[in-house]
Amino acid sequence: MGKNTFSRSGYTGVRYSATSNGTKKATSGAEERMHQGQGLDPLVDPKGPAHLGPIRRSLPRFEKRGNLWVLTCGIPMAEEDLLDTTGSMGGNVDTAFDVLPSSYEMLTSGSRPILGRYDVQIATAIFNDVEDGEDVPVLCRTQFEMDEKIASQMTHLVPGRRGQGNGKEDPQFGLFGAVYLTNAAINRWGLKYYHFTISDEPIVETIDPRWLKKIYGDDVLEHAKENGYDFSNGKLPNTAQVVRDLQTKAHAFFLQVGNRRDVADQWSDLYGAGHFVMLPEGTNNLHCVKAIIIGLMEGVLSLGSALEFLTEHNVSEFSARQIIHAVAHIPLGAQMLSPNFDKLPKAGDLFREKTDLWPVDPSEIDSATSGDSEDEDSDDGPNWL
Question: How far apart are the C-alpha atoms of 72 and 189, rounded to whole Å?
């Protein structure tokens, strides 16, 4: 619970420890752990720690106040990146880790905080190739976090940094988790979370059930069913269906590195032209592209104000214009189409139960908060953040 959010000071501490004061890569410890046969840190293992399982959850944060619950940081908005870390893409985690403070600040601060009204909760997933070998995980996926844990869990990711050349990579398992093994509270209000897949390669068109169980555990389909999706081994969705299902829950985009035509053709067919973006400068300004996409979807930015926003965040005018041109075709204001877009509860609102969609009527607050506060751990309801 609580109100902690990401800060540069917290990030600096994580960076100092993980990189030995800048002398090694942030994921070096995780890579060495994997090479020694110790496996992934449970927090980024797609199977999840035993007490959490494979479902990644983005839930509201509450504190007890009398007989009610106070929403501490607004309604949570989940944002997840699915990064290619094979071959030439092997440095994507390093890049994402380095720009994390700037990326977070674009979303939460400045004159136009892109997601300023939400409790921003970020997860990072990476994918490799099933042919990369036993010491390279096909998928790693952090939890949705709100503070320096965003950075600390990124240091547990294990990028492949190589590719065995089967002609396609394997992000389909990360996409499976992004929809069927994600519980994002924002969907309860009819809004969507944000998901970005970043790669320079084609994708396999089917979900191999053997690899799915190897990655997520033998009980993966039971967890998917718990999350509202009932599959059997013989009826797994193909990749195209996975993307269609993801787009019902998330504003999901594919961001292409490079300009290979076969890659563009396949991914634009899967996602639709409005959700396919060619990155103008590779992953160097990935965080800026994402911020502009989210800002345009939320209606916080327009194509006219995006240039000022980017220059305010120290992006050169040349790069800013390239970014705006690259995203000008996306469905502007799509998030705003939700009937509840302007009705979301805000930080400080009081709820009778943590499962309630709407806060209590103000006329009921005085009497409802007059009771003694209870230890929140004694609550019989969901053990939310």
Answer: 18
Query: Per-10-residue mean pLDDT for the chain, 385 residues long?
Result: 88 96 94 93 95 96 95 97 93 95 96 96 95 84 98 96 69 98 98 98 95 96 95 88 98 97 97 97 95 98 97 96 98 98 97 96 69 44 46
Contacting residues for 53 by C-beta, under 8 A, at least 6 apart: 47, 223
For residue 120, the Cα-to-chain-centroid distance in whole angstroms is 10
Residues 6+ apart with CB under 8 A from 275: 247, 251, 252, 253, 254, 330, 331
Q: Which runs of consecutive H residues, i.e. helices, occur in the chain?
A: 8-18, 28-35, 92-98, 100-108, 149-154, 172-180, 209-216, 220-226, 239-249, 261-271, 286-298, 306-312, 317-327, 365-368
Write down the pTM of the prediction. Answer: 0.94
Q: Cα separations (Å) of 229 from 221, 224, 225, 308?
A: 8, 5, 5, 43
Contact 226, 217 (CB under 8 A): no
Q: Which tokens is 85 given?
A: 């870390």
